[in-house]
Amino acid sequence: MMKYLQKLGKSLMLPVACLPVCGILMGIGYILAPAAMAGEVAGFTAGGFAYTLGLFMIKAGGALIDNMAWLFAIGVAIGMSDDNDGTAALAGLVAMLLFQNLLSSGVVSALTGKEAAAAFGKINNQFIGILAGIIGAVCYNKFKNTKLPDALSFFSGKRAVAIVTALVSLVFTGILFFVWPVLYGALVAVGEAISGLGPIGVGIYTFLNRLLIPVGLHHALNSVFWFDVAGINDLGNFWGNTGTFGQTGMYMTGFFPFMMLGLPAACLAMYHTAKDNKKKMVFGLLASAAFCSFFTGVTEPIEFSFMFLAPGLYLVHALLAGITAAITVALPVRLGFSFSGGAIDAVLSSFLPLAENPWLIIPIAVVVGIIYYVVFRFVITKFNLKTPGREDDDLEAEKKVTLANDDFTTVAKIVLEGLGGKENVKSLDNCITRLRLEIKDYTKVDDKKIKSAGVAGVIRPSKTSVQVIVGTKVQFVADEMKKLL
Prior knowledge:
Blueprint: H1 2-16, H2 19-32, H3 49-65, H4 68-80, H5 86-102, H6 105-112, H7 126-143, H8 159-195, H9 199-211, H10 218-226, H11 234-240, H12 250-253, H13 255-272, H14 279-296, H15 300-306, H16 311-330, H17 343-349, H18 361-382, H19 395-400, H20 408-418, E1 425-430, E2 434-439, H21 447-451, E3 457-462, E4 465-469, H22 474-484
Antiparallel strand pairs: 1-2, 2-4, 3-4
């Protein structure tokens, strides 16, 4: 089950990767047309070239944000299929079309003869999109090689997938007709319970978000608050300017301080507490990871560098993140992101109408950075934690250590050797920062050998699964490994 959920989490990254484009388009759009349809603002006049161009870019970004459910249906179907074939995407689209039409308020009212429940007015959401994608992928995986009698041979193989998907989707439509209103109510209750706690609820959410990073299931939690699954839709409302000023953005604002300066400061603490003879060795890893976290909000290269070496320290980090988020949203500041809480999104989203006192993020982040540095340095030295550069000396391993570099072929070869060779690898895939592999014999996996390639870390979710934390250049390493395999 865990393996399946992890694969789902990876699949979700494909449609989520569309969000940075929305952020760039809408961020620039709101710079050109700050009030977006509010007449003359900051020297820009409605109908003028700058305003028109800005509004055009805002609407272009909104075209993706407003249809994320469809992107999820297609992206998940591709990601969950065995060979990432486009036929699976078509199947996911078929399922989504049936759900959207048969469960719409108008059709439900016509079928029942009475007003449809409020839940059916919210059927265009990421949860339904994910479900459609899963159905499409499962049908593809099971029926892509179907052989029918000669009279029906035209519909054999991949042509049978869409037909089967439609039939399966009809069954799920009937189930959702009864289940969706109940499930929707439960999701709304969870969202309202946390949102009703104000800053404390935000702190709890952020704490749980960090705790789920190791298993890659934080995306499931995020979908409840960032998208329109439980009626919160913090991300969509912020970028679509359909939320409430001073409230919308509260489930995103708290990420900026610890992503921009908190975790980079933790990197500095880990560097300062590293053994003198290993500081040069860990500098490349920590510096590049800190840079990535500050600018893009991608924190996995940092977190995976110590979460398994010092799990207690990772718990401290999760607590600090939760406290940071709670205090940040308690202040009169609101900011949002299209991808993650880095400097790029901070600048782009600061021009949006629902951004409140975005400049406060900088002083807050500075204070958070100082706290992270002090706490990390104290905890590491007090409990002698084995963070990067503080591991027990192993001269043979040190001789083979190669700092992270752009020689992706060499990195791929070292990682593959550490995995026990290509004969020990059953399958290879990757998400935004990780190589995800299925192996035959876990005893042949050499963690130290893999780490000597300069990667951020190695985790083993099960005896047949290995994940190698590479960072944002993982696609290049994965491409080279596929050639070697």
